[in-house]
Design brief:
- This protein has 329 residues and is mostly helical.
- The protein has a single domain, classed as Alpha/alpha barrel (Glycosyltransferase).
- Helices cover 41% and strands 9% of the residues.
- The chain has a two-stranded antiparallel ribbon with strand order 1-2. The protein has a two-stranded antiparallel ribbon with strand order 3-4. Strands 5-6 form a two-stranded antiparallel ribbon.
- α1 packs across α5, α3 packs antiparallel against α5 and α9 runs parallel beside α11.
Length: 329
């Protein structure tokens, strides 16, 4: 997850800074951020801006394209966001502008590539590169050939990185109308009893085992947290997918019916179930209110998804006084 994790670090550092006004992370760890950004640049070996190295992730129960395809759309979006946000972090830490402009140009290059080649008329592809040549199945080590299965499928990951940017008003320039269409169409194509599975590409169900690690790939496998992140991104774009929460709750009720499981992350059959990714649920409050707060610029605004809502604004809470303001529409 090389590209995934270095971009995660940068996006979290950026969100922390914009929400708190505290710039100590970039001042203290500026060189780490710079090295991470240079790594993102180096992961593009074709010159189109989009990473084609370091793309294998730990979505171990997904289709080949989602799990280890080159030039994945969701990683392209994360890379674009990291380059833009990282440039802002380093500018705040006093780094010279010439190198920062390189990062911004790469982000713009990715944006143009995603919109020009990633859009397939009613959804974004999983990857820009459909070729499986040169790839190996990370579970078996087997060399792959031909076309990568599921490269052009409907999937729920395009907007995966967007909520953490939406909450601080960081606009990457992606086409919001396309994003909304992508999320709605992918939802319809991937919907199961308990939420959306990763993609509508369904190969033969199989179990992959390496040592004591097991992953089950099937057409019904999905992660609740990834569904919730999609729902948050949709809400910030005026698309109401909040009723999906009833499906997630049904899954929690089912898994806790006999034994106490608390939050059970995955459905459809695998062993990736006990993860803390469910903290994404806290973002629902802000997404419903359309709450945007950037302490650095002083921006604070709301744009409610529904006509009648009353939600706590936890980012503005004074916990010492036990006071949490709320928004009501």
């Amino acid at each position: 997850m090389e590209v995934e994790e270095v971009t995660n670090y940068i996006l979290l550092a950026h969100a922390y800074w914009r929400r708190t006004g505290d710039g100590h992370i970039q001042r203290r760890h500026g060189e780490t951020i710079r090295k991470f950004l240079d790594f993102v640049l180096a992961c593009d070996t074709t010159g189109n801006g989009v990473p084609d190295e370091g793309c294998t992730n730990t979505i171990d129960d997904a289709s080949p394209a989602v799990q280890y395809g080159r030039e994945q759309i969701y990683l392209a979006v994360k890379a674009m966001a990291a380059l833009r946000c990282g440039a802002e972090l380093l500018a705040n830490a006093g780094y010279p502008g010439e190198r920062l402009e390189t990062y911004r140009k790469q982000a713009e290059c990715i944006l143009q590539e995603v919109e020009a080649k990633g859009w397939l008329g009613d959804h974004y592809a999983v990857t820009l590169d459909p070729s499986a040549e040169g790839l190996r199945d990370p579970w078996t080590g087997e060399a792959l050939h031909g076309e990568l299965a599921g490269w052009d499928a409907y999937h729920i990951y395009t907007a995966n990185a967007l909520p953490i940017l939406d909450m601080v008003a960081c606009d990457l320039g992606l086409d919001d109308a396309r994003l909304a269409q992508d999320m709605l169409n992918a939802c319809r194509r991937t919907l199961t009893q308990y939420g959306c599975c990763h993609t509508d590409y369904h190969g033969e169900a199989q179990v992959s085992v390496v040592g004591d690690l097991v992953a089950v790939q099937s057409g019904t496998t999905g992660w609740v947290s990834m569904n919730m992140l999609r729902d948050l991104a949709a809400a910030y774009r005026g698309v109401d997918m909040l009723n999906m929460a009833e499906r997630y709750w049904d899954w929690q009720a089912a898994t806790n019916a006999r034994d106490v499981r608390v939050f059970f992350e995955t459905f459809g059959g695998n062993n990736l179930c006990f993860y803390p990714r469910g903290v994404a649920v806290w973002g629902v409050f802000e997404a419903v209110a359309g709450f945007v707060y950037d302490k650095v610029t002083g921006l604070r605004e709301v744009n409610a998804l529904r006509q009648t809502v009353r939600v706590p604004l936890l980012a503005l809470a004074d916990w010492s006084k036990r006071h949490v303001p709320y928004f009501e529409a």
